[in-house]
Amino acid sequence: MSMLRRAFASGSARYIAGRVGQAALQLFGVVTIVFVVLRLSGDPARLLVPQQATAEDIARIRTQLGLDASIWEQYLQYLSKLPRFDFGYSYVQGRSAVDLISERLPYTINLALAALLLSMLVGIPVGMASAYFRRRFLGRALMPFVLIGQSMPAFWLGLLLILFFSVRLRWLPSTGFDGLTSLILPAITLASLSMATLARITRSSFLEQLNADYVRTARSRGAGTARVLMGHVLRNSAIPIVTLLGLEIAALLGGAVITETIFAWPGIGQLTVQAIQARDFPVVQAIVIFVAIIYIGVNLLTDMLYAVIDPRVRLAGSGEQV
Amino acid sequence: MPEQAEGVVADGRSAGEAREEVLRVEGLSVAFGRASERVALHDVSLSLRAGEVVALVGESGCGKSLTALSVMGLLPPEAHVLAGSITVCGKEIIGTPERLLRRYRGSAMGMIFQDAMVALNPLQAVGRQIDEALRIHTNLGRGQRRDKVIALLDAVGVPDPTNRLRQLPHQFSGGLRQRIMIAMALIGEPRLIIADEPTTALDVTIQAQILEVLKDVTQARGTAVLFITHDMGVVAEVADRVVVMYGGHVIESADVVETFSTPAHPYTDALLHSVPRTDSVRGVDLPAIPGSVPAPGAAPAGCPFHPRCSDATQECLTMPPLEQVLPDHDVACWHPHTSGRSR
Ligand SMILES: Nc1ncnc2c1ncn2[C@@H]1O[C@H](COP(=O)(O)OP(=O)(O)OP(=O)(O)O)[C@@H](O)[C@H]1O
Ligand SMILES: [Mg+2]
Known about the structure:
The structure holds two protein chains of two kinds. By secondary structure, chain A is an all-alpha fold. Chain A has helices at 2-9, 13-40, 44-48, 55-65, 71-81, 97-132, 137-151, 154-168, 181-210, 213-220, 225-236, 238-253, 257-262, 268-277, 281-309, 311-315. Chain A is flat, with a radius of gyration of 24 Å. The model of chain A is unreliable at 315-322 (pLDDT under 50). By secondary structure, chain B is of the alpha/beta class. Chain B has twelve helices and twelve strands. In chain B, strand 1 and strand 2 (38-49) form a beta hairpin. Chains A and B meet through helix 10, helix 11 and helix 16 of A and helix 3, helix 5 and helix 8 of B. The complex binds adenosine-5'-triphosphate and magnesium ion. The site of adenosine-5'-triphosphate has 15 residues of chain B, from helix 2. The site of adenosine-5'-triphosphate (ATP) has 15 residues of chain B, from helix 2.
């Protein structure tokens, strides 16, 4: 932690303030675009009433939902409530959008963490090994698996896993949430792509660094494989890996639409699909804002991590050479 | 140059009392290519005794670095050793498994690389990089290791070592970085140091300081130094003996004074006449010898130098053996200059 403190102690308050301001602006943009686009997508009132409903019924519902006002009025009204974290109420369920999201969030976080852990624990070592042993059988044998993982669509892999482990072997539950075992199949499905991407980034980043002169220098001191990889190469190749990890974390926390649908997983992804299908504007808007905040936050964090990994990022241009 | 060469005799280091042999390279041949068709080192032999500084000289591409890397057991994976033996402090390097070689690197032998900016890990504090050999090869505690690192940094002339060992390589000037490299190679107190063009990347004034530091610390410890350079001016400053390479062959080997006063091989002679002026742009050799070094596999039949040699005859189409022409003076040439007529 002392490294973190040191990285941010010097004159980074202004940098952070700048970044936060920038983030607020981005968020405002996202809110506006989503608001407008959703209202162009169609009339939610039509979906809420039965087939045989009259025009008056529909009009009444539109008034109830506040959809009869002009888009400007609706927009200003919506914005005015945001500072109180009031994102409106679901048209379908009548409950607050924030409640709906926070109800789903633990499931998404569980799944995201499991998938992330899995893809890091497999992807990074596989990438490292295939780079280090690039001239040997192991290094060559690993990459085809990575390619398969990367090109296999989630819906297909998910169905295969269900067929094999749930239907045939009856080892694992196929759908819903019921303890840790039900986490396994969705986590594997969700992790397969990020695992493969992570392995590839790690491999290419390591390959580049393994040829660096400092590796030979380290070996000239008597450093062995583990020391060279963990003590020297890892940190030097960490920036692309961290960048990708940041994007993966954000994507996973935003909810895995396909995976959650296949496994009937009650997370944000499932909520998103339901809300979009019902034109449940407040819920969709709240989800989009939530996802945007996550992306912005993760981005900010990754940028800070860069400076911890490579202090030259922070010192650039300050001419601190003696 | 001759004044400097005499200086070496005056401080008596070359007055050859028989000291322990630290490095012996015998009949080393190294090649590249699937069928080892591009031979880069031909039957290279040389040896170093404790406390001795041997300069390995020759133009770019002569095989100096390959010789050095062979000794360290750090040849690139595409290079194959065809034949030969290398012993460091009596231990064989060729054919020894990596696991054992690791034990020798950093403790029996150390290497100083040319460009410290890229040869040091840019993201690790220099103190930790110097310390690494101690962490690997000794059981010393943290505090003891730190004291050793600080003392050595002080000895190689890094000011304020206690604070600066926490800094990263880019926070140092080129000269200081090279001093750090020297400390790094020496920390495990190896008997043999290989310095591969340690000053080529530096300004001339800094270059002189670095040579001074290197001489001081290695002399104080009786470390043998294989000093690789293509700068004959530097050779005169540091070396006790000179081994000249051309096209992967050792073509002359002699005491430094003899090398400068009576170079026997026409190539050595030509090298001496192409001594770069001290103010020449770094890295740029004066094109004093017309033609260029043959690439591995592209060498002409016989003596590789004959196409560029003014003394070449029919005989030179077969490779001359390395033979003694004077006591402690070997040369591989059919027409050696024997009377020092060049100077
Ligand atoms: N990895 C490699 N693959 C193929 N050829 C190589 C490799 N490394 C070196 N060589 C060739 O071997 C020959 C000797 O190279 P070496 O690096 O030993 O030269 P050098 O004498 O150190 O030259 P310099 O002064 O430029 O450092 C050169 O012709 C070079 O092209
Ligand atoms: Mg070289």
